[in-house]
Specification:
There is one protein chain. By secondary structure, this protein is an alpha/beta fold. It has a single domain, classed as 3-Layer(aba) Sandwich (Rossmann fold), CATH 3.40.50. The chain contains 11 helices and 10 strands. The strands form 2 sheets. A 7-stranded mixed beta sheet has the order 3-2-1-4-5-10-7, with helices on both faces. The chain has a 3-stranded antiparallel beta sheet with strand order 6-9-8. β4, α6 and β5 form a beta-alpha-beta unit. It starts with a helix and ends with a strand.
Length: about 250
């Protein structure tokens, strides 16, 4: 998992170009839950700043962290003036406490050992933790089957399993499941932002070029699998890309 987590720097520009951004509704959910706009925030695994720019536009002083300098360089170009720290989540040293700590499509890369005490140590008592993520999937079942068949000689699946094994049919999904068990957090809530996207076939292939499962393949195999998938894709491509948002509040006392 750590190797996959550090695989994105080589495709930082493609990540910025082809990964979808986040809707303003995400910040609205966080602010409504918090009861006011947080003044300070720490972002875990900021990448190229897809979520950073949303929170920064609301006047929140964001400290964006990421272990990859190439990703942070792209972020600084997209969100000038935001404070950046090159560090993995596990290397962050507690000191300053923030009113909000959040992760956008990044929490699953963090080490589960002491994950919640570490996050709690970065939050002021009563502060808010937020996580957003969700798979980007082909919407048409027939296209799903065609792409699976094209991909299968090289890759059985291009998705990451639930970090704690929570089945997809369970009402509460990860990381809400872990937050509910944590002594550090309370008032755990899960919301879904429904999202459907339509993109050119070339852009969907561009998106796949930023997915860790493909980045792990040898270069020759990557070229072959992209070619095979490209031949069975419709143009444009319809995507189901619902966002699952988890919110929790740090307890005043553990």
């Amino acid at each position: 998992m750590p190797d996959r987590a550090l695989s994105f720097g080589s495709v930082a520009k493609a990540y910025e170009r082809f990964r979808p951004g986040y809707p303003a509704e995400l910040v609205d959910l966080v602010v409504a839950y918090a009861g006011r706009t947080p003044r300070t925030a720490l972002e875990i695994g900021a990448g190229t700043g897809k979520a950073t720019r949303l929170f920064a536009r609301r006047g929140i002083a964001v400290t964006a962290t990421d272990p990859d300098e190439a990703m942070l360089a792209e972020l600084r170009g997209q969100v000038p003036g935001v404070r950046t720290v090159r560090a993995a989540f596990e290397d962050l040293i507690p000191g300053e406490r923030y009113e909000l700590v959040y992760a956008a499509a990044a929490l699953h890369w963090t080490d589960p050992v002491d994950r919640w005490p570490r996050i709690a140590a970065l939050l002021a008592p009563g502060g808010v933790f937020a996580s957003v993520g969700g798979p980007i999937r082909l919407a048409d079942p027939a296209v799903v089957q065609a792409v699976r068949a094209a991909r299968e000689p090289f890759l059985a699946s291009d998705e990451l399993p639930s970090p704690d094994g929570t089945p997809a049919e369970r009402a509460m999904q990860w990381p809400g499941t872990e937050l509910q068990r944590s002594e550090w957090f309370t008032d755990v809530r899960q919301s879904v932002i429904a999202r459907r996207l339509t993109v050119p076939a070339a852009d969907y292939l561009g998106y796949l070029s930023t997915v860790s499962a493909y980045l792990e393949l040898p270069a020759g195999q990557r070229r072959q699998v992209y070619d095979r998938i490209g031949r069975v894709l419709p143009d444009p491509v319809e995507l189901a890309a619902d966002l699952i948002v988890h919110l929790a509040r740090r307890r005043a006392e553990p």
